[in-house]
Amino acid sequence: MRIYDIIEKKKRGGELSNEEICYAVKGYVSDKIPDYQIAALLMAIYFQGMSDQELYNLTDCMAKSGETADLSQIDGIKVDKHSTGGVGDKTTLAVAPLVAACGGKVAKMSGRGLGFTGGTIDKLESIPGMQTALNQKQFFEMVNRLGLAVIGQSADIAPADKKLYALRDVTATVDSIPLIAASIMSKKLAAGSDKIVLDVTVGSGAFMKNLEDAITLAEKMVVIGEKAGREMVAILTNMDVPLGIAVGNDIEMIEAVEMLQGNGPEDFREICHTFAREMLVLSGQGTEEECDKMLREAIKSGAGLKKLADMVAEQGGDSTYIYHTEKFPKAKYSLDFVAEQDGYVVKMDTEQCGKTAVMLGAGRETKDSLIDSAAGIRFFKKTGQKVRKGDILATLYASKENILAPALSFLKDAYQFGQKQPEPQKNILAKVTKDRVILY
Ligand code: URA
Q1: What is the largest CA-CA distance in the chain?
Q2: Which one from 60, 89, 161, 372 is the annotated catalytic residue?
Q3: Distance from the CA of 82 to the center of ligand 1, in angstroms?
Q4: Ligand 1 within 6 A of 177 CB?
Q5: pLDDT below 50 — which residues of the chain?
Q6: DSSP H helical segments within 194-302, as ranges?
Q7: What is the pLDDT of residues 103-151, one digit of tens each?
């Protein structure tokens, strides 16, 4: 077999066999095939697409390129959740404890932020002492005892994805639906859960800018998961505005705590509730109505919040931060974005909002950048809201004063104002299962 022939076949729209796909993936991971040939293959896939069978084979081969977690030592049904990425997306921090408080088992491997999107692990590590690198025995024991653990994804999970993603990043092949589907699902399959709920984000702060593409991506990921014997649900959520009010590490951790106390912004609460319900229903904890009731009780009784505090304590973190969020250090400097005239916020470029947070120090410009956990933005006015001259639209936080003015001017460009109130946006846009697509 020759990689040249495989590239040629895909370039002409042919269907690659499992052997051909695995030859390319294994050859690349073992450094036998050079970057430039795999880059050509990725570009051919970008333009020609992949059949469902090719996509499954690619995902399976990538999933098996490293360690695959065997979660059989954890009792019961293990349920996972994954977001395709967004701005202000702290959902896992509230959803995983809620699901565990209602009897679910969440053995979660999460990522760090890169680019304009944040990562759960960075947010958790804003709590002093928090360890996100547990060994397998500690991880399994914790999920058996507590119902949850959230750890960083080990370097051995789907190493093919790591290498391919880095190559896609520099060859303009990231925004390919089959390549995104294989990338995400290879990690999910390797992570081992029985049931998976996907959050496929849609809008200016997401990879998928429109609903049609997001439905296609969701369908592809559901097909891959079901073929691999996992039960799948994908929920499409609005990422045309940042989720909730907070974008940054400490302040998102605080917002997740507020959600578990029954407070916080309405969009974030609705999204958390929807994901927790889907995860509980998939885990066989009850009907939608029963799971809704359990969730409301877990919030009212404080059981969800206690699960988060217990998880933090078990992972070496200072759990008093969960009950006393005023302990999170405040950023040294802040600057308000003040409305210059009356009107409505008619549109936000959410990716640009995320990039502003990165400029402030809340995210990483490169893999090795250090995070400033106190940096970030609080959004007080988002798309659809009326503003009056002098209102504070957002507050920017940073540890270096000289970053604030350029970041504010960048954020200003992310907002569009008008005199007419735009149509209200839905938070939950659609649900995709193996049998159907439901539009909301
Ligand atoms: N997230 C991933 O893990 N991979 C992609 O390709 C895009 C988003």
Answers
A1: 68
A2: 161
A3: 10
A4: no
A5: none
A6: 211-227, 249-260, 266-282, 288-300
A7: 999 999 988 877 788 789 999 999 999 999 999 899 999 999 999 999 9
Distance (Å) of CA 169 to CA 44, 80, 173: 16, 26, 7
Amino acid letter at 373? S
Tell me the C-alpha distance between 244 and 266, whole Å: 8
- Is 324 an active-site residue? no
Active site residue 318: no
Using DSSP's 3-state secondary structure scheme, residue 188 falls into helix
Q: Based on the residue annotation, tell me whether 83 is a catalytic residue of this protein.
A: no
Query: Ligand 1 test: best mutation among 45, 80, 165, 209, most atoms within 8 Å of CB?
Result: 165
Give the residue, by CA position, lying nearest to ligand 1 atom 3: 184
370 membership: H or E segment, kind and range: none
> Considering only CA atoms, which of 125, 115, 85, 86 is closest in space to residue 373?
125
pTM for the whole thing? 0.95
- Ligand 1 neighbour 176 (Cβ under 6 A): no
Our answer on whether the CB atom of 116 is closer than 6 Å to any ligand 1 atom is: no
C-alpha to C-alpha distance for 346 and 323, rounded to whole angstroms: 37
CA distance 140 to 73: 7
CA angle, residues 298, 97, 242, in degrees to nearest 5: 100
